[in-house]
Amino acid sequence: MNSHARWRCLLVCVVILAQWKLVAGMMLVDLGKRYGLDVSNSNAPMHEGALRQIMDGVRDEKPDSMYLFGLMQFYGHGVTQDKDAAIRFFRKAAADRHVDAQFALGLLYHNGADGTAIRWVFLL
């Protein structure tokens, strides 16, 4: 690949990541609402049955439950806020091909987690 093609590829990646950054906050909030987590009001009480189902799924290592628990920890909804633990749960769910967890990780990495956003963008 010549240097011109490399620069073009880099420019495309930068444009894609810049677009992601514009919608990052909005997308994470939308994903939380999609799963019934009111992340705009993380102090709202969570239904006990919902929390029990999520925790049962986490124990069984179900990707949806791990992703939801990661969202809960990221926003401090129903549990103590712990963003490092949230990233660990997102990673577990993403490793099981959970698309929303992969997207959330890409956004978090893009915003400074550890520079591995490109890996999740291209699913390498």
TrEMBL record:
It comes from the Eukaryota. Keywords: Signal. Pfam families: Sel1. Transmembrane segments: none annotated. SMART domains: SEL1. Residues 1-25 form the signal peptide. This is Sel1 repeat family protein. It comes from Aphanomyces astaci (Crayfish plague agent).
